[in-house]
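Weekly puzzle thread! Below is a chain. First person to post its structure in token form gets bragging rights.
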Amino acid sequence: MLKALIGFVAGILVVAVGGYLAMPHLMFSEVQSPFGFEETIARIQHNIEGNPELKAKGWALSGLRDPGRAVAMDGGNVLPVKMIEVCSTKYSRPILKDDTVRFLSILMPCKVSVYKKNDGKVYIGTMNAGLMGKMFGPLVGEVMAQVAEDQKLFLVMDPSKPAPEMILPKAAPAAGGAGGAGGGC
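Winning reply:
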């Protein structure tokens, strides 16, 4: 009996440690880009803006953020990093309408991070929307499964197409509102 109990507790510990170590790789994805920093950003932006399937689903750019800028303004120095913000009201609407899951607005808009590492290469980071959605019940699971499928289209890198220009954010309206490069959530 004692051996069984020790084995059971050891099994739980192994699963817990394994889950803890695997979680970052399950929740987030990182892929190396075949292009430079600005070209990677531009290609992702144009994938979102120029894909008729994504347009039909309401996807629009809502911002381009530079989190490294705050570090630089504080006297620090970091390698380039930009967050492309994109949203679809088709997907945000059902979540924002439901009081029980409205707290998930913290995840809106969707973000795609493009950054350089010390190895000199450019990487793209995304959240695993499908897995994240499963943790919050059927409504969010269904919506986020669709978001996850659409995210794949954001990241298509076709080297046969010429490099597009980066889409810079428009100035925010004087009275507030949604700034960025279009949409908003």
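Puzzle host: Confirmed. Bonus trivia for everyone else. The beta strands are 28-32, 59-65, 81-88, 110-116, 122-127.
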